[in-house]
Amino acid sequence: MNIKPVFMLLLLFLVSNVTFAAKNELKWTQVLQPQYFPGKVIQDGSNMIRLKSPVRAEDPALVPVKVTANIKQTKERYIKRLLLLIDNNPVPFVGEFEFTPESGKADIAMRVRVNSYSYIRAIAEMNNGDLYMVKNYVKASGGCSAPVGAD
Q1: Phi, psi at residue 87, to the nearest 5°?
Q2: Given a cut of 70, is residue 29 above it in pLDDT?
Q3: d(CA 49, CA 17)
């Protein structure tokens, strides 16, 4: 077996995935962030919230997504709002969820449609207005054109 062609194919695959992810980031910085959070600074949210989603969607029409808070909801500091966006969907906005200290937890779980390879972003807005974001890259295609499952 000649290793060179296999290596070149793997390299081409990796470069194409990196290029695709870079285009997604460009869409976020030039289109989506100014549209949904004009003039706002969004910080790394890995200490605040966790986003769980598959790397590759089994069914792009029903991709499981879960956002969990890493902090307790107290009157002094709490997650006031969670937004979920899917960069490459025809309509990126998935939903907005509001919380209070009385909510107990700022956690959500759902199934979403993912149209094509895309970042899914969860943005937490704190009660003081600070914004924190986490994102996962999901490989899916055809979700928005796929028929709804029978189950």
Answers
A1: -50, -50
A2: yes
A3: 26
Q: How far is CA 58 from CA 26, 61, 120, in A?
A: 27, 9, 16
Inter-residue contact 120 to 65 (CB < 8 Å): yes
For 40-138, CATH gives 2.60.40.2470
- Average pLDDT of the segment spanning 62-70: 96
Class of residue 3 by CB neighbours under 10 A (exposed 0-12, middle 13-18, buried 19+): exposed
Q: What percent of the chain has pLDDT over 70?
A: 77
- The domains of the chain are located at 40-138
Given its phi and psi angles, is residue 59 left (phi above 0), alpha (psi -120 to 50 degrees) or beta? Answer: beta
Kindly state the tokens that stand for 83. Answer: 């937004």
Q: What does the alpha-carbon distance between residue 117 and residue 94 come to, in Å, rounded to a whole number?
A: 16
> Bridge partners of 131?
42, 125
Contact 104, 86 (CB under 8 A): no
pLDDT digits over 111-133, tens only? 999 998 999 999 999 999 999 99
| CA 53/CA 34 separation, integer angstroms | 25
Beta-carbon-side half-sphere exposure of residue 121 (alpha carbons within 13 Å):
27
